[in-house]
Queue: 4 jobs
Job 1
Amino acid sequence: MSENPPRCETDVRCNGRLQDLKRQFEKKFGESPHFYAHAPGRVNLIGEHVDYCGYSVLPMAVQRSILAAVSVSSSGTIELTNTNPQYKDFTVPCLEEITIDRDNPEWYYYFLCGVKGVQENFGISPLAGMRCVLDGTIPPSSGLSSSSALVCCAGLVTMEANQKSLSKVALAEICAKCERYIGTEGGGMDQSISFLAEEGTAKLIDFDPLCATDVKLPDGAVFVISNCCVEMNKAASSHFNIRVVECRIATKVLAKSKGLDWNRLAKLAQVQTELKASLEEMLALVDEALHPEPYNREEICRVLGVTAEQLCTDLLSANTQHVTHFKLYQRARHVYGEAGRVLRFKAVCDSEPSEAMQLLGDLMNQSHASCRDLYECSCPELDQLVDTCLEAGAVGSRLTGAGWGGCAVSMVPSEKVESFLRAVREAYYTHDSRRAAMEEQSLFVSKPGGGAAIFLEK
Ligand code: ADP
Ligand code: NG1
């Protein structure tokens, strides 16, 4: 039985961020917050674009989060305001059905995803009125899960304000499901680590059933995050869902090639389970049953024996209806290869061989190459940054999160961290005024942080 998120009694005067937020809340609403909630972002060390295929991932929480100050009110409305003026105020009546506009993914819709998830779970009607001031320190659209931290924070706030109780696992599952209301078909890694993280340890996250296992990272390995300063909003573009769809179609084609009941299967991991095959055997099957040339719609319809309409309604999502070509071979090869790298990464951490750092670094480098070449979810700036990090002394470096921009994570021997930071600063940030202006937020060491929690004022 999983525990509930911690509720910590805190002296707000000892925490600068809480104190500032309290002050802003009082200024805005003329009353004090009743409680605070925070949910962290994460950095994924390895296991990219495999969670929605049913495979395990290996993230850790970062010490950056979404923090909310909240009061429960009798106003009959949910009032949202943000410390960042870029995110405009928003109010919604509690009696109104919560609708999420996928075509216009404004910040408050992420919050409302979390509200809706908890509301639906308990059938709450009407919701308690609440006033919230939100504050975020996770760079948005950069692969560190700012959106999920916001959804998770909203789920936690809604639970607390409506006097309900949920375990961390239940909250993670609810928030993974409800973030999909925004339109992206994510796999659940971000919400799981946001709730299940524990300070000082990375986690192997398994799905179906959701379970998080501690992963002790080698002593002397420091993880450094660097942002290539290209933003990619998942919900406002179709890159992410195109990959989800390609994996779904690859699942069906592979399953059909082996005579399985392909209609029932939607994730690449399910094909492996049905076949009782190893990941190496799955890679061999990809070579045998799929071809490297992109598949067009006609070929997919022919191979699966479905009509063009069925392809649109059963296999494509709302924002992928326009796609004409699908790289099934490359995407499936990435997923089965990456799933194996996650398991090897965990095994190296468990067995602590003397060359652990080198082995882990190699796996991270292979992961990046696969994301770049097979999954095509990198971008020139991110590739340049990864190369820069390796030249600056990282043993391994790779894109983290969805990609197409955003952050790289590098594993650096502790004795080289200072020279590494200096070299990356000089090579990637200093000579570009836009990047230089963002540098403080964009290049930082990250230790495994704790999970989502509620704070009550002492
Ligand atoms: P990520 O990879 O960080 O999850 P997404 O592109 O999926 O990025 O989501 C980013 C969106 O999340 C932003 O455009 C914004 O709507 C929302 N968001 C992120 N941080 C904040 C914040 N501090 N306050 C309000 N909304 C935020
Ligand atoms: P970020 O980095 O938050 O955009 C996304 C998905 C994850 C996972 C990674 C790729 C969401 C909310 N998150 O993460 O589930 O698929 O991409 O590994 O969709």
Job 2
Amino acid sequence: MQPMTDTALYVQRRKHLQQKMPYGIAVIPTAPEVARNADTHYDYRHDSHFYYLSGFAEPESVLILIAGDEPQSILFCREKNAEREVWDGFRYGPDVAAERFGFDAAYPIELLDEKLVELMGNQPTLFYPIGGDWDVRLIKVREALKAKARTGIQAPNAIRDVRELLNEMRLFKDEHEVSIMRAAAQISCEAHRRAMRFTRPGQYEYEVEAELLHEFCRHGARHPAYTSIVAGGANACTLHYVGNNACLNEGDLLLIDAGCELGGYASDITRTFPVNGRFSAAQKDVYEIVLAAQAAAIAAARPVNTWNAPHEAALRVLAQGFIDLKLCKGSVEAVLESESYKQFYMHRTGHWLGMDVHDVGEYKVGGNWRPLQSGMVLTVEPGCYIRPSDSVPRDLWNIGIRIEDDVLITSNGSEVLTQAAPKTVKEIEEVMRHE
Ligand code: GLY
Ligand code: MN
Ligand code: MN
């Protein structure tokens, strides 16, 4: 079989969605450009659903899919504009875009409302991402159609959220997606290794952040998938710390949660290592517990098990570890039952990963945790965050540790996509000593 070109892949995804609809019209807009201040904008990021179905990255674009006996796939996008292209760069324009991206037709974005009245007529169901900027606009189109009722044209009677269908498609990664996610993971592993080699006491968190960004960018991953967390010492106990402006002290740990976005796909890695290159005894005790919890969770991330199995596996190891460290009292069962572990581990053990760092897809189906299946990608990221407290041994104060990898579920187990980022105490100390 010939390998599929990118265009064939996107055409196939659109067909798949049309089959799932299987009647009606879907309106899927890309993301708007967002002003940062004055006349500068945040770096443009397309909408993930739109890009998943089109591969088209220009702003001001909308995809229309018509399902049923005469399926159509139509793009609305910016027209060619010689003057704007001098300032902002190339744009495809509808004609070339239709050809290059495999649409049945394409029109200038200015014609969208007018054409929509035409296209929506006599379609039984309107699918779109309900609850955003498009509610008012699409209801107006529907009202315009209703006003034509006496001419025999009917407006859609039903409205459904297209994401119900798309989220489920995106949850299962195809080979093309997995190959991009592998590449993104590899770059992020290199970045974590670079950060370990670079870090010394006296540096600032933002200096280490700069090393991460350098490594992402030099491999063509221009943007992080989320704001990097570079948290020295006590800052690691603030889960979403992004200040990244403190000095790194001798004797502290550094927690880095950072991953690049490549080709529209996220990677998401956390590593925690000593600023001076050597774990103290107390740091090592806590680290080994989190590492063992992660190993147990990764072992549980396989088909037949459900989404919640890795979390439950991690919790059991953490609960025993917290008892051993004198952070929690009682038996493992009692710690789990009372949830006393939540003082030190207050988040869950992972999330779906894909185009979005917290990717789409239901975690429960029919009220039950869903079984893990081949093609799903999730993170496995247990941690332990010990804030100062009279009830906590003093040598553990301000230790914050998380270890996070990206895991692809395969037909008979799993593949850790981020294996190349040093993780054991020995590996980390070796990288920091020799490189
Ligand atoms: N970096 C975001 C997360 O780990 O969920
Ligand atoms: Mn994560
Ligand atoms: Mn993360």
Job 3
Amino acid sequence: MRIFSGIRASGDKTLGNYSGGYRQYAATQEQGDAVFCIVDLHSITTAYEPEGLHEATLAGAAMLFATGIDPERSIVFCQSHVQAHAEAAWLLSSVTSFGELRRMTQFKDKSADQEFVSAGLFTYPVLMAGDILLYQTDIVPVGDDQRQHVELTRDIAERFNGRYGDTFTVPKGVYPDEGARIKNLQEPERLMSTSAGNPQGVIRIVDEPDVIRKKFKTAVTDSEREVRHDPDAKPGISNLIEIMSVVAGESPAAIEARYDNSGYGQFKEDVGEAVVTLFAPIQERYRELRADEEGLRRLLGTGAEKARAASAPTLEIMVERMGFVRP
Ligand code: ATP
Ligand code: LTN
């Protein structure tokens, strides 16, 4: 089974990324041939600084290895190192409609209130479809915010297969049962994000333990004192229950039972402590990996070679079926 996922090279990754992303990558790696891509070409679709991109790309690689991706077993590479991705995006844009792209909520969210909206931000899902389809991917582990993009990828694959003959495996999205949409601790109505929202409510994987504790202690809840999972009536506390569920591997019901009658103060403190404990070894490995830039580049170089070899046959079939003359 082929597994593929992509992570944007942008900012310090969050507890949301851990829950919807890294945690699933490490688990799915055990199930087949996994490919993880730091999608630096996607990172330039919104305002960015070149030095920031450089740093975020290396940080993205280090975080994948720190959270348990084994470079011997899985392919980890940087999107811009494998030219097939940019080429596939162009080819697939001919089987993607303007209307489909216009409906994408990530485009609407990321373009709202921006002075400059790049054409790349609009066509972003086509690049993502190419990432996935080039590797004949069976499953795509992601958070719930990527559901619409994965569904579009399936439509693009089916349309291409219908028009030019069976070329792509039609991939399935895989979303965690708990923690597919971790919310900002200060604004529980919005997703925790690398790039938006109140920073006090965003837990970064690299945050110092005391910073994490404080962010949990000051998390927004409600005026009751019952630890109960009810996302509509109690979004703040429900988010904390989901976080505890992800971190402790327990069901929300078991957590409710454990905190029956104990009030919010102790619960918030315990969730914070559980996250600190979970992140401590990841932070340590991350620092070691990040300090060895040469080592990271070497690993990315090997990953790129493997990714080129894995994607080239699909690109070749695409161009042939589409009628291009080959040299
Ligand atoms: P940016 O803000 O730069 O767009 P991002 O965090 O949205 O970054 P990625 O780093 O590429 O984007 O996301 C990696 C994975 O984390 C994706 O599968 C995404 O669905 C998942 N993810 C992001 N935010 C959350 C969240 N709040 N809850 C659960 N999963 C999330
Ligand atoms: N769009 C995703 C990142 C991404 C991706 C992918 C995820 C780019 N290409 C391929 C899974 C598979 C995001 O914004 N998080």
Job 4
Amino acid sequence: MDMAYIDEFSSRLGLTFDSERVPEHVAIVMDGNGRWAKQRGLERNMGHRRGVEALENIVIGCRKLGVRYLTVYAFSTENWSRPKAEIGTLMNLLSEFADKKLNRLKANQVKVQVVGDFAGLPMLQRLALKHLLDATAQEKELVLNLALNYGGRADILQALKQAARQLTPEEVQNMTEDDFAGFLQTAGLPEPDLLIRTSGELRLSNFLLWQLAYAEFYFTDTLWPDFDEAELFRAICAYQSRSRRFGALAEA
Ligand code: FPP
């Protein structure tokens, strides 16, 4: 946590930040790259390129605000239905991100992880990512969890199959919600406290279906390439103004 950074945004935006109530885990649907580009008469690819820059800034912002886990929806299982050229761009950006950002991520003590069907990614991207994951495995300040070739239903289904393979029928019958969560691809991560979706879309789009059960949702019309550290600060302040009850009553 960087108090000078927090004070600067607090006074610039006129918002109060409670350093005792920082969401431990933030999840983001980074939406609106295509529209951002179209508005400027640019190719969609340029929107995705600027989207990666936005992600880099948000990773640094999270680190400074004291967020410990950041999960971003970088490529969904549904994204394979986009034109081949756009899929190619996204895959290129991914390997470029893995190669070029390694040093900056390490310098900021960011550990990168992946959830999703890793085996279904092209070989080049798997190799680049493997190197990034290995090289940052010891970092401790922030976990950047990339959801790649990820689908929430597919995650639940693979968890079910894995549990059925590894457990006896009796153990399956006695399984608790926490036990089940241990088979999800997010095993070991706390559940997200805050979900952010940009670009004015009010959907979950098969993101972390199980894991978002009690998350606070924050939607903004800002398109992802324009989502900057000030916007992140606003989102977290909005989160801090919510009363989280987890189904119980508010405390008196
Ligand atoms: C949604 O915008 C965004 C995506 C489908 C991909 C998100 C990917 C990035 C931000 C960059 C890749 C990430 C890494 C880690 C290299 P959209 O294309 O659906 O926008 P639109 O709804 O305006 O068309």
